[in-house]
Amino acid sequence: MSVTPDAAQSASAGRRFRAYTTKHLDELTARAGLAADEQLAVKAVAHVLPFRVNSYVIDELIDWDAAPDDPIYRLVFPQADMLPTDDVSRIADLISSGAGRKELNEAANGVRAKLNPHPAGQMDLNVPTTGNEEPIPGIQHKYKETVLFFPKQGQTCHAYCTYCFRWAQFVGDADLKFASGEIDQMVDYVRSHPEVTSVLFTGGDPMIMGEGVISRYIEPLLEIEHLEAIRIGTKALAYWPQRFTTDPDADDTLRLFEKVVASGKNLAFMAHFSHPNEMKSELVQEAVRRIRGTGAVIRTQAPLIRTINDSSATWEDMWRTHLRHGMVPYYMFVERDTGPQDYFAVPLAEAYDIFRGAYQKVSGLARTVRGPSMSATPGKVCVDGVTEIMGEKVFVLHFIQARDPELVGQPFFAKYDEKAAWLFDLKPALGATHFPWENAPIGANGLVDPARL
Questions:
Q1: Is the pLDDT reported for residue 11 higher than 70?
Q2: DSSP H or E segment with residue 322
Q3: Which residues, including other chains, have CB under 8 Å from residue 243's CB and lie 6 or more apart?
């Protein structure tokens, strides 16, 4: 029996959170029309890369009549060809033969080891140390103004994106997980570094935490005078908007947001929206209204992902929708060099064409967006265009942010390569022998020599 939209939204709003994991894959992939061998291949991939979805995504976002080609389905369900065929076949054979958990985990770990679980120097370059050179857990400090903190209770999500570059947080391997519950250590670090003006809570998803937990992390920061902004990186608006509308602590969470704003700090809600269909629900629109009502600024960002949002029309629709609901389009990212990058990545030349095609169609109010941007080891690099200089076809790029602040805003050029999908696929152009960052004076922990700051 069909349900009226209002009744459907009401039912969804009052529904308790229910997670679906690997043990539910056969049931769900059968619903998408996959044959038995296809289901087995998907299950093999899910033994390597994490799978988790919830009742809201299943019932409200996925068009099951269009599955498995529906973009939201592809956003959350593993695809058989996300990993090399030989790896998928080997794990599928183990599953079919009834192999034990230990053998399956060993095979999965072998595949994971080839997937660059912590790209851009996250573990060896971004982690600061104490006075006795001990790494400080759960903190990354790549750019002098911004500290990233990974609260241990926020290292999961309401659902997992198949393209997620932080997949290593979710696979149950303690050696790959990056997190901390040391609130005082985080606060002391920020307090002792006056150059830090922004703290980004990230994960996983910090909004998986209840208000009582997240407030213990945020409230001590409000007393630090040099801190200007608190950011929360989250997919919760898209995957579980009830977190801000009908969950038991929704109102308390919004009061916490109001407290941050009242303290004189900017609360930047960094919302991940990967496709315009994620904005269709009245629930998410109400959640956006409630968050904006606290004084928080919602900025939207997502990577460009092949088979999910790789068209100018999709991004134009997404940015215009976000603007209409009072959000600020912020970033189009390039898929990072980790996990199933070969499956999801869009070549830089094509990425620029997609960005430019959408950018041309939106008003100046939506041209706050930046991209295509690569969050690479030396910094955030934006592809500004393709042109010809002295007879040579080149990419024009610049640093939005960098380990070495001297590089910020600096344009540079790379040889045009229609297949290049990442910064390190590029070669210097116009007779240059190296890129600007290759001589940067990097010191301990991957931070630039303090004498340069």
A1: no
A2: helix 312-324
A3: 158, 207, 236, 250, 253, 287
- Measured CA to CA, the distance from residue 248 to residue 56 in angstroms comes to 17
Mean pLDDT of 388-403: 96
What is the C-alpha end-to-end distance of the chain, expressed in Å?
Answer: 65
Q: How far apart are CA 17 and CA 7, in angstroms?
A: 18
Q: Which long-range contacts (CB under 8 A, 24 or more apart) does 446-452 make?
A: 446/121, 446/124, 446/125, 446/126, 446/142, 446/403, 447/128, 447/141, 447/142, 447/144, 447/403, 448/144, 448/403, 448/404, 448/405, 452/404, 452/405, 452/406
Task: Give me the torsion for CA of 307, 313, 314, 315, rounded to 10°.
Answer: 120
3-state secondary structure of 177: coil
- Rg, C-alpha atoms of the chain: 22
The torsion angles phi and psi of 152, rounded to 5 degrees, stand at -65, -30
Task: Report strand pairing: 229-234 vs 139-143.
Answer: unpaired
Predicted TM-score (pTM) of this structure: 0.89
DSSP alpha helix (H) spans, 347-453: 348-359
- Residue bearing tokens 């040889």: 415
Rounded mean pLDDT of 371-388? 96
* Contact in structure between 83 and 45 (CB atoms under 8 Å): yes
Tell me if 47 sits within 8 A of 91, measured CB to CB: yes
CB 139 within 8 A of CB 128: yes
Task: Name the strand (E) or helix (H) holding 299.
Answer: strand 297-304
Confidence of residue 177 (pLDDT cuts 50, 70, 90): low
For 276-286, letters b (16+ CB in 10 Å) and e give bbbbebbbbbb
Q: Diameter of the chain by CA atoms?
A: 69
**Which helix (H) or strand (E) covers residue 54, if one does?**
strand 53-54
Q: Which of 161, 166, 139, 134 is nearest to 150 (CA)?
A: 139
Supply the pLDDT for residue 342: 81
Burial of 61 (0-12, 13-18, 19+ CB in 10 A): buried
